[in-house]
Amino acid sequence: MKTALVTGCSSGFGKGIVAGLLADGWTVIATMRAAGRRADLLSAEAETYGDRLLIRELDIVDASQRKALAVEFSHLDLLVNNAGFGVMGAIEDLSEEQLRRQFEVNFFGTVFLTREFLPALRVSKGKVLMISSILGRQSFPMSGAYCASKFALEGLSESLAYELSPHGVQVCLVEPGGFRTSMADNTVWGEKTADPASPYAVQNANMKRMREKMMSRPGVAPGAVVRLIVKLARKNKIPRRALVGKDAFGMNAFASLLPDRVVSFLYTRLYDKLLAKAPA
Question: Is 3-201+219-248 in CATH node 3.40.50.720?
């Protein structure tokens, strides 16, 4: 029986990925912060799958926890790097601590955890699935910190895929579009985004208003992402990148088919209209 480790299982796509892999016959190590207090989030899965579900504490930025996990689980066939969060707001409105924290979680924590498990994955000739975002390919205003962390993850993962190919380990960047998950509830806003004196006050207000409007709609359930992860886990050969979601495919096609200057011009006009104009 094959074993998978999934990070960030208390929110976002993580819980669904755990359930999907368990249903597909995997033994799953589900990790999350404060696991002792939050293990009940996976109580239904624990009751159904028994000892095939192992819940462990992991704050992805904690080096000692990363190392202890790698020592405990010396065999691994699949690593799903799902843990992450988003910092919103203009770069000038973010504190240095917020910007660094964004990278500590979304980039450095993910990279260092992956390094811990590479020896085991080389032995099993396993797979690494990095949950990135379409915003790891194309950036969006007022979310530069989040986009930058995903851009960094994409660059490193592509390099890692080439490095690990001779060792039989495959790496895939999963790039979802917008899905309705609890990750939206964990969004952090820059320290100065509520300050009316901020040069970006109008943009911040419009961004918050736009997100509130989007959150009031039903949204797209994350099932497609879970199904893709299970499919990739099964496959003998996986791609370097995998888009998921109509908006992700649409944004990628738009940027791929048109010259950069045209894409830049059109996005600038769109974002100016959506964010830069004061409400009437």
Answer: yes
**Is the distance from CB of 81 to CB of 9 less than 8 angstroms?**
no
pTM here is 0.93
Instruction: For residue 185, name the pLDDT band (cuts at 50, 70, 90).
Output: low
Residue of 257, 182, 175 lying closest to 215 (CA atoms): 182
Enumerate the domain spans of the chain. 3-201+219-248
Instruction: Dihedral sign for Cα 150, 108, 14, 25, please.
Output: positive
- Examine the pLDDT at 180 and tell me if it is beyond 80: no
DSSP code per residue over 175-227: EE-----GGGGG-EE-TTTT-TTSTTHHHHHHHHHHHHHHHTS----THHHHH
Can you give the three-state secondary structure of 58-73, one letter per residue? CCCCCHHHHHHHHHHC
Q: Which residue has the tokens 């895939």?
A: 172
Active site residues: 146
Strand 241-244 and strand 188-189: pairing? unpaired
Average pLDDT over residues 164-169: 98
Mean pLDDT across the stretch 159-174?
98
Q: pLDDT by residue (tens digit) across 230-261?
A: 999 999 999 999 999 888 998 999 899 999 99
Q: What sign for the dihedral angle of Cα 51, 34, 132, 71? A: negative
pLDDT tens per residue, range 116-130: 999 999 999 999 999
| Residue 279 DSSP code | P
Contact present, 137 and 255 (Cβ < 8 Å): yes
